[in-house]
Design brief:
The chain is built from one helix and two strands; from the N terminus they run H-E-E. The protein is 34% helix and 5% strand. It has a two-stranded antiparallel sheet.
């Protein structure tokens, strides 16, 4: 055997050793992940039993309510007074609308900014 083939064999053996160590490290990491998951699950509360599941309300299922809402009016300020800041406004509630007609936008408008419509012309 000459020196070149011995150096090639040594490099090949070293590469095999490195790959083996990397494989063992990956298996250890994977096993540690399963071990950590089992520890976390053992500390969690048990899953609810069938009798502990939520039940339907006595009046039956709850359905969607469709109604139009109107916002409360923003208080007007007298001329010359400083405007109110958002912190000085009360909680602006909404109330049911007297009108049963759904609000509509102008024809050709989607009603939202950037909605893709042609806009009001």
């Amino acid at each position: 055997m000459n020196i070149a083939s011995m150096q090639l064999a040594a490099a090949s053996g070293l590469m095999s050793l490195v790959l083996f160590v990397v494989a063992v490290a990956l298996l250890a990491l994977l096993g540690g992940g399963f071990w950590m998951t089992s520890r976390v699950r053992s500390r969690e509360l048990p899953r609810p039993r069938a009798d502990e599941q939520p039940t339907m309300p006595p009046g039956g299922p709850v359905h969607e309510v469709r109604e139009n809402r109107e916002s409360a009016e923003v208080p007007r300020i007298a001329k010359g007074e400083r405007p109110l800041t958002p912190y000085e406004l009360s909680n602006m509630d909404t109330r049911p609308s007297d009108s049963k007609d759904r609000p509509r936008w102008s024809k050709g408008s989607s009603g939202s900014f950037g909605g893709g419509g042609l806009g009001a012309h």
